[in-house]
Write a structure and sequence with these properties.
Shape: elongated
Number of domains: 2
Number of strands: 11
Largest sheet: 5 strands, parallel
Order of helices and strands: EHEHEHEHEHEHEHEEEE
CATH superfamily of the largest domain: Response regulator
Number of helices: 7
CATH class of the largest domain: Alpha Beta
Structural class: alpha/beta
């Protein structure tokens, strides 16, 4: 089945670049490009795309505001394009929380090193995804049972892939402050992990931080493994530690 994609970006150069690279995949048809939220809204109504690629940093109604409207009024698969800066990382985490399928690095010059093919794969995966109506946003920590006492040998390991950010935020908001040591591996670029951990920390009773190789795993702490090419191993017996392996 051919995936019908709509490209939304205020930059003519970026629209052309993204559309060109997606069009190189025979399973993707770029049915249109839009320069902002207003034209995108009309094209969504008239063209009914399977997937939208959406720029986060747009003037007027920015990508996050438009994404919020899409997910409330007409939920559909959206792939956000973002820069890998600190500000871009924070916006990316917010986009994933709002229900974006995933985020992809915005090219600075031209898609290279397989970035164009990666985006095409992401768009096709988004088209196959089942988009759920967005749950109510978590804005504060949820009080946990005061009498909870974890087992001394207890530990929690969570693996989360594309689309899991929203679920993780909802899950951790109910964790007690004295939860067992918890390790999370989340599919995302390494540069986004600090912003993601900081967001989880603000919304969770336990302390959430980016995992460091060799650091002891303590109760009341949640450790998010750096994204990218790392995976996380737990070593030791009574004193467990996190070991990051590239």
């Amino acid at each position: 089945m051919t995936v019908r994609a709509l490209v939304v970006d205020d930059s003519p150069t970026m629209r052309a670049m993204v559309a060109h690279n997606l069009s190189q995949d025979p399973e993707i048809e770029v049915i249109g490009t839009a320069d902002g939220s207003q034209s995108a809204r009309e094209m969504i109504k008239s063209l009914n795309p399977d997937v939208i690629t959406l720029d986060i940093e747009m003037p007027g109604m920015n990508g996050l505001e438009f994404l919020d409207k899409i997910m409330r009024l007409r939920p559909m698969p959206v792939v956000m394009l973002s820069t890998l800066t600190g500000r871009g990382a924070e916006a990316t985490i917010k986009a994933l929380e709002l229900g974006a399928f995933d985020c992809h690095q915005k090219p600075t010059h031209a898609f290279g090193d397989g970035l164009g093919a990666d985006l095409a794969r992401l768009v096709k995966a988004a088209a196959r995804a089942r988009v759920r109506p967005r749950a109510a946003a978590v804005t504060a920590r949820v009080p946990a049972p005061a009498d909870y006492v974890p087992r001394a040998d207890a530990m929690i390991a969570i693996g989360s892939s594309t689309g899991g950010v929203e679920a993780l935020i909802e899950l951790l908001s109910g964790f007690p402050a004295n939860c067992p040591p918890t390790v999370i591996v989340q599919h995302m670029p390494a540069s986004f992990t600090p912003s993601f951990a900081a967001r989880l920390d603000r919304l969770s009773a336990p302390t959430v931080s980016v995992a460091r190789s060799g650091a002891p795993l303590e109760a009341g702490h949640v450790y998010v493994a750096p994204g990218g090419s790392h995976h996380c191993e737990v070593t030791g017996g009574t004193l467990r530690r996190c070991r990051l392996v590239a």
